[in-house]
Amino acid sequence: MKNSLVYILLFSIQVLSSCKKDVTPATSGTATIDNTTTLGQTYYVYGFLFSEAKKVATLDDPVDVLTISPEVNINNEIVRITFNVNTFRECFFLFGEYSDAPSASAAFNNLTSFSNPQWIDPPVEVKLNQIWLFRTSKNQYAKIRVVNTVAEKRNNIPYAECSFEWEYQPDGTLTFPGK
User: Fold this and answer.
1) Which of 21, 72, 112, 165 is most deeply packed, by most CB within 10 A?
2) Which region holds residue 5: left if phi is over 0, alpha if psi is between -120 and 50, else beta?
3) Peptide bond before 177: cis, by omega within 30 degrees of 0?
4) Using CA atoms, how far apart are residues 23 and 85, in angstroms rounded to an integer?
5) Alpha carbons 49 and 72: distance in angstroms, whole number
6) What average pLDDT values come out for the chain (179 residues) when binned by 10 residues?
7) What is the pLDDT of residue 63?
8) How many other CB atoms are found less than 10 A from the CB of residue 177?
9) Is the previous residue joined to 123 through a cis bond, with omega within 30 degrees of 0?
10) Cα separation of 9 and 6, whole Å?
11) pTM confidence score
12) How far apart are CA 145 and CA 53, in angstroms?
């Protein structure tokens, strides 16, 4: 009898420990990306991948990873910062620019659907209190609200950073949240 209980207990532990949770990535949140380079076998940066709801390395040129870059003039002064992405198509639409954070936040929250945007190619200039629509290579969509930007020199190297609120809809419809 004792042996049977031990076997049942061991079997139960093995079954319970082998169960895998299906972890569905988040479809909204906040993120911060910058242009800090990292050295592996080559130089790369970390960008944001909406479908996985996390920062990922740009090694091997992954598609749909949102990155930020400073653009400089001939005097090495930062003139603007830009979103970039490797989708090989027009994928950004500027939904709006707002004078303050409460207006931008309200517009972001009220943006529940859209139709027929005029998509443009990256890079696109990033400014505080903008709302962007982003189309992935698989025709899935994200809305992005720029909540903070940094453009400065760090150790005499141009540095760009952007914090943003985002919502992703993976179902291919033009509505937020996804159905």
Assistant:
1) 165
2) alpha
3) yes
4) 26
5) 26
6) 48 51 80 89 87 90 92 93 91 97 97 93 96 95 97 93 96 79
7) 92
8) 12
9) yes
10) 5
11) 0.84
12) 15
